[in-house]
UniProtKB/TrEMBL annotation:
Protein name, UniProt field: chorismate mutase
Alphabetized Pfam families for the sequence: CM_2
Signal peptide: none
Chain ranges of the Chorismate mutase domain: 8-98
Organism in which the protein naturally occurs: Erythrobacter longus
EC main group: isomerase
Parts forming coiled coils: none
Stored PANTHER family: CHORISMATE MUTASE
Keyword Isomerase: yes
MF (Gene Ontology): carbon-oxygen lyase activity; chorismate mutase activity
Chain residues that bind substrate: 18, 35, 46, 94
Keyword check for Translocase: no
Length: 103
């Protein structure tokens, strides 16, 4: 986390909280950028369009995120919903990229 953002337990004002949330959001977007880079790599590597959607892998990824969240004391049901959207969005992105690089 950047030096200007305090850790949650160090926050004393809503300005501190909002700066921390904003910094965290920027970090999350950077992580998503990397994750979507892996989707581009998968699209490049997978030999067929049918290989893009893998329901077993999707279920495994979501289950792992829920378990990790619960281990950290976060609401597993909410994380499961977020990951459902993230994984479906990633699959859609991968399909688009798969099609683009093969046109």
């Amino acid at each position: 986390m950047p030096e200007t953002a305090k850790l949650p337990e160090q926050c004393e004002t809503m300005i501190d909280v909002r700066a921390g949330v904003d910094a965290t959001d920027r970090e999350l977007v950077a992580l998503l950028e990397r994750r979507f880079g892996y989707m581009r790599a998968a699209a490049r590597i997978k030999p067929t369009r049918d290989a893009v959607r893998d329901e077993d892998r999707k279920a495994s990824v979501i289950a792992a995120a829920v378990a990790e969240a619960e281990d950290r004391g976060l609401p597993g049901d909410l994380i499961g919903e977020l990951w459902e959207q993230l994984v479906e969005g990633s699959i859609a992105y991968e399909f688009v990229h798969w099609d683009q690089i093969r046109d």
